[in-house]
Write a structure and sequence with these properties.
globular
Amino acid sequence: MPTTRQIHDLELLVLRCQRGDHAAFEDLVRQWERKLFFYVRRLVGNEEDAWQILQEVWLQVLRGIRSLRDPRRLPVWLYAVTRNTVMSHHREEYARDRILDSAERLASSKEAEPGSFDDAELVYHGLAQIPRVDREVLTLFFLQDLSIDEVAEVLGIPPGTVKSRLFKAKKTLREILEPEGDHHD
């Protein structure tokens, strides 16, 4: 939970961005680029696409920051803009017929040396193997520290649906990681 000071700093940063302060926008990018890149990277196939999408996200943020009415909602707004940009990217991929099928991803993941993973890499490896909808809810909740309500707002679904997706996603990830983890002991 952010402190009162952090909330005030966030509000000031948003207000400065809304007034066209370029230094404030650079601060915003510095503060959020890693978190947003990590989120995008969990949802797209490769790092190059993730960086390209993140550039589009920053353009959308620059164009739309003035529409943000409550500066305290910046984290949820940023994740929503990012998610919408990622979804647009995926729609374009489908239209171009360039989506990798799951068999191709599975084949490439099996080529990885199982003994070369530490715990974090093992989790990321597992995340890459679960369906995107499960990966997204786990990433937002556990790795980006959004609340159930904030995840629901970003995804545009009820909080109860977020809870059920979290339950299912954790179960799926556990099923993938337990056999993987057995190889590393």
